[in-house]
Specification:
Elements: E1 3-6, E2 10-16, E3 41-47, H1 49-59, E4 64-70, H2 75-83, E5 91-93, E6 100-106, E7 112-117, E8 138-141, H3 146-158, E9 162-165, H4 176-183, E10 188-192, H5 193-203, H6 207-212, E11 217-220, E12 226-230, E13 233-237, H7 251-264, H8 269-283, H9 296-307
Parallel strand pairs: 1-4, 1-8, 2-6, 4-5, 8-9, 9-10, 10-11
Antiparallel strand pairs: 2-3, 6-7, 11-12, 12-13
Helix pairs in contact: 1-7, 7-8, 8-9
Length: about 300
């Protein structure tokens, strides 16, 4: 059955400055800063949390219903998604906006200067959950424009869909009552360990209280695996070692795609999170958030190598 994937679609421009920012920024002149960095090396990659999750699900044989907003410059990205079979029936194209774009310049010390233009993402609420007529049981609300995240989570729950809420980098722009509403009634609330602390701090609610308001919480811990909290039960999801670490960008989105794959197949959260851990580790072995081109058979093989058996 299809899986509704609500989230951002973005284009990343990654540039390398073959020097160090500190050699060109004078601390006593910060108030009149005016510098230009020569960056002969640039890489353009397709990204965005919603698109990344949908991409991996499609590669694994699932049918994602991607709900997002893009701008008038979407033609090349659209052709790319078409080439990989990712449907665009519910992607809203806005003629007077640009697709969300991130511009990242990295120096030789791995310091970064980043500029993010949200563009059409800030109007993603115009792509409505109610416009999706396809039958589906599971839906995810991943990082997106604030209004879109709030509305989509609310609408999915109201429709009785099993809702995965993944606020991610959107947490700082959410008010405490909005975060509490996100948790309330979700089938699954997923954050990383820093975000989990931030949610507790902003809402004033402890771990037990938050966990009692949703079906389960998954806290991802990077190379340490993940923690599944179901009521008073805590289950450690073991990490899966990558064969090589090439690029961690998008590993969290790959984890979520693997998790959704398991959920859609009727597996419990623990088994589903293990699939996510495998897919996330596979992603870091490839450049770019959509650089992993794994199919279901390859995922099964890696799952068996990691946990002793393929998933059902």
């Amino acid at each position: 059955m299809p899986i509704l994937v609500s989230g951002s679609i973005a284009v990343d421009h990654i540039m390398v400055f073959r020097d160090r920012f500190k050699n060109h920024i004078q601390p006593d002149k910060i108030h009149v800063l005016n510098v230009a960095f020569h960056v002969p090396e640039m890489r353009k990659t397709w990204g965005g949390c919603g698109a990344n999750i949908a991409f991996h699900l499609k590669r694994l044989g699932e049918e994602p219903l991607l709900l997002a907003a893009v701008g008038s410059d979407f033609e090349d990205y659209a052709a790319y998604l078409d080439g990989h079979g990712v449907g665009r029936d519910h992607v809203l194209e806005l003629a007077d906006s640009f697709t969300a774009s991130c511009f990242i310049t990295t120096d030789l010390d791995d310091n970064q200067i980043t500029a993010f233009h949200p563009g059409a993402m800030d109007r993603a609420h115009e792509a409505k959950v109610g416009s999706v007529d396809d039958a589906y049981e599971w839906g995810i609300v991943s990082p997106n424009g604030k209004e879109a995240m709030i509305r989509n989570a609310r609408d999915l729950k109201a429709l009785g869909k099993r809702t995965v809420v993944d606020p991610g980098q959107g947490i700082p722009i959410l008010e405490p009552d909005e975060l509490t509403e996100f948790v309330e009634g979700a089938a699954l609330f997923i954050v990383n360990d820093y975000e989990w602390s931030l949610v507790q701090s902003k809402t004033g609610l402890g771990e037990a209280e938050l966990a009692s308001r949703c079906g389960a919480v998954i806290v991802t811990l990077g190379e340490k695996g993940a923690l599944l909290i179901e009521g008073e039960r805590r289950t450690e999801i073991p990490p899966v070692a990558a064969e090589r670490v090439l690029d961690p960008t998008g590993a969290g989105d790959a984890f979520r795609a693997g998790l959704l794959l398991g959920c859609a197949r009727g597996l419990d959260f623990e088994a589903s999170a293990r699939i996510g851990a495998v897919l996330g580790s596979m992603k870091v072995e490839h450049k770019g958030p959509q650089g992993l081109l794994a199919d279901l058979a390859t995922l099964q093989e890696r799952h068996e190598a990691s946990f002793g058996a393929p998933f059902e």
